[in-house]
Amino acid sequence: MKGGVYFDPEAPHLVQRHFALVRVRRGKRERFPEGVVEVVASEQEALARQDPAHDLHAAEVAGPSRSSEGFRLYYLVRWLSD
Predict the structure, then answer these.
(1) How far apart are CA 72 and CA 63, in angstroms?
(2) Domain that holds residue 32
(3) What end-to-end distance do the CA atoms of the chain give, in Å?
(4) Would you say residue 2 has pLDDT above 50?
(5) Is the pLDDT of residue 5 over 80?
(6) How far from 30 is each of 11, 26, 48, CA to CA, in Å?
(7) Which of the two ends of the chain, N or C, has the fewest CB atoms closer than 10 A to its terminal CB?
(8) How confident is the model at residue 10 (pLDDT cuts 50, 70, 90)?
(9) Structural domains in the chain (count)
(10) Are 61 and 20 in contact (CB under 8 A)?
(11) Distance of CA 50 to the CA centre of its chain
């Protein structure tokens, strides 16, 4: 998994994969604070609601995971569109 986040099969409730809308400029960044991530119900919903012109992108993310500084982060698994 990117960013050093690994899934524990014995504790699947800790960090999970989600479809989401991420409000950022796309670049090389692979982790995002929870304030810019909106988890949605499905890949189709994320794709339907994305608005790249306003920096709102559909993605598959893993999280939330707590950083060493105490922030809740989501890690990019993949962008859903190019």
Answers:
(1) 8
(2) 2-79
(3) 20
(4) no
(5) no
(6) 23, 10, 22
(7) C
(8) low
(9) 1
(10) yes
(11) 14
Strand partners, 57: 22
Phi-psi region of 53 (alpha: psi -120 to 50; beta: other; left: phi over 0): alpha
Residue 44 has pLDDT above 80, yes or no: yes
- What whole-number distance in Å separates Cα of residue 30 and Cα of residue 1? 11
Instruction: Quote helix, strand, coil % in the chain, to nearest 5.
Output: 20, 45, 40
- pTM here? 0.84
Please calculate the CA angle 4-49-37 and round it to the nearest 5 degrees. Answer: 30
What are the structure tokens assigned to 65, written together? Answer: 């995971």
Q: Where are the alpha helices (DSSP H) in the chain?
A: 43-49
